[in-house]
Amino acid sequence: MQIGAAFAKRTLPAPTGAGNTPQKGAQAKSLAWLAQAFSAQLLARRPSVDAPWPVSVATASYNADVNFSPAGVLNADLHCHSSVSDGTLCPEDLAARAQANGVQLWALTDHDEVSGQHRARAAALGLGLPYLTGTEISVTFAGETVHIVGLGFDPDDAALVDGLARTRGGREARAQEMAEGLARVGIRGAYEGALKYVGNPELISRTHFARFLVEVGACRDTQEVFRKYLTEGKPGYVPHRWASLRDAVGWIVNAGGVAVVAHPGRYKFTANEEYALFSEFREFGGRGVEVVTGSHTQQDYVKYAALAQEFDLLASRGSDFHSPDESHTDLGALPYLSGTLRPVWEALAERIHLPS
Ligand code: AMP
Ligand code: MN
Ligand code: MN
Ligand code: MN
Question: Which of 36, 173, 237, 334 has its Cβ near the most Cβ atoms within 10 Å?
């Protein structure tokens, strides 16, 4: 069975909410037409299951174990960052890298920002690469920061754009406080230093500070900077209140998209807190979870595949690529989703921008 047939066979619920109208410029395409186009365009470039990109031994053995279905075997990369947030490549260079790596469906998901969406979509479509809109919203839940990825929404939706602007709003003052904390342990000029790495003045993040601290020789790499300076209890860490889970999911859903819990394996929640996160996320209209991401171990793949089934969630896949120099997982260089899961892109078939 081909991907197109898999699409055609299932009943695909349309995204719900006030923003559930076709995006500007996007043609209203019948499901049958889309299934056909998707099948023809994507399968033409579908890699074999022996992935052509470099995979670790761990990844190869995971791939050998999973039960593939054609729906699962799609090199979708639905999580990465450009210089519009804390990545180092511009949207156009990321699109080119995704395409060169064999990605077949791509989304740029900058933190708390959608201003790179039109550029990313234009670049992707120009390269013949199907595109879904994306973002990654910072949320505070049970005192921890949780990231919620949004996919397939209208990037011009006013409530979403406004909510993201308010979420970004506190970053400037937080950055000043981070620099004060670092100055107290002898690292001066960190605010100005971090700014040199910032591509979007509204989005100064810990990653930009990490790059500056590596530059001045305080640490060998950004991982070490986070460990020693930028995590809870360390001199450059400033607690911050981000968006609420209800608001973040609401903005995405009302803009016609699907909300996905990003890299759940990274949060330091107890089992009860994690259960509460997913229960509330579902209650607010969230529908997906990242199962295969650059931040997950093999155990996490198994754990969150089971959780996706328990909570009846769609499964997503994304590298969380930030930079050729810093990221250990390149665009598209991930195991496929298990065929036992329902991939998030099936529910977003009508939101995928296809090259003409
Ligand atoms: P912020 O939104 O300013 O709190 O920055 C969060 C970003 O920092 C994440 O999106 C990652 O890109 C990066 N980050 C967080 N923890 C680490 C870590 N341990 N090592 C490297 N980068 C990290
Ligand atoms: Mn980041
Ligand atoms: Mn994240
Ligand atoms: Mn991310």
Answer: 334
Nearest alpha-carbon partner for 53 in 105, 104, 101: 101
Structure tokens at 273: 């807190």
Q: How confident is the model at residue 73 (pLDDT cuts 50, 70, 90)?
A: confident
What is the whole-number distance in angstroms between the Cα of residue 126 and the centre of ligand 2?
Answer: 26
CA distance 235 to 237: 6
Q: What is the DSSP letter of 251?
A: H
Q: Which residues line ligand 1 (CB under 6 A)?
A: 86, 111, 138, 205-207, 222-223, 226, 322
- Work out the percent of the chain whose per-residue pLDDT is above 70: 80
Query: Going by CA atoms, what residue is nearest to atom 14 of ligand 1?
Result: 207
Secondary structure class of 354 (helix, strand, coil)? coil
- pLDDT per residue as tens digits for the range 233-253: 999 999 999 999 999 999 999
Question: What's the whole-model pTM score?
Answer: 0.85
Question: 40-54, 66-80, 118-132, 279-293: which has the minimum mean pLDDT?
Answer: 40-54
Positive or negative, the CA dihedral 228, 273, 297, 282 is negative
Ligand 1: distance of its center to the CA of 212 in Å? 14
DSSP structure string for 284-342: TT--EEEEEETT--HHHHHHHHHHHHHTT-EEEEE--B--TTT-SS-TT-SPPPPTTS-
Report which protein residue has its CA nearest ligand 1's atom 21: 223
